[in-house]
# Entry
Amino acid sequence: MVQTLSQTKQYPTRIDLAAEVRTEVIKLLNQTLAATLDLKTQTKQAHWNVKGMDFYQLHELFDELATELEEYIDMVAERVTALAGTALGTARIAASESILPEYPLDAVSGVEHVTALADRYAAYGKHLREAIDTTDNLGDLDTADLYTEISRAIDKRLWFLEAHLVK
# Structure
């Protein structure tokens, strides 16, 4: 049986955030963890399968994006555990809990892959901005700051992707 985001156990901690706040933040962080893992694998899907005249440039860009996402995966998972929760980062959990749509497996050209990734980066960025507000409203400014850091980088990467789509 796969553990769901609402079934996570909290461990004893001396952190001064109320258990109810931590419960909500941990649930949100685990949702973000699922989406970030999903975005990374979708980015690798593009990396492996892009074809066309701009193959090498996009192949390298997509690999760079995936590597960067790996850092965010670790940051989010470690924040969950710092809040005395359990990071839920398996592929099965990511697939079932991600907010992102499935990647178009028939994408081949650079434009198709860039468009698909731009759509997903935009959705992920929206999720991050909503999470900034939620964690700020819950009084967890450290997690809000983490989300802000990731959001700033994701917006920049979305800009990089969208620049390829300008005609």
About this structure: The chain has one domain: 27-163. The chain has five helices and no strands.
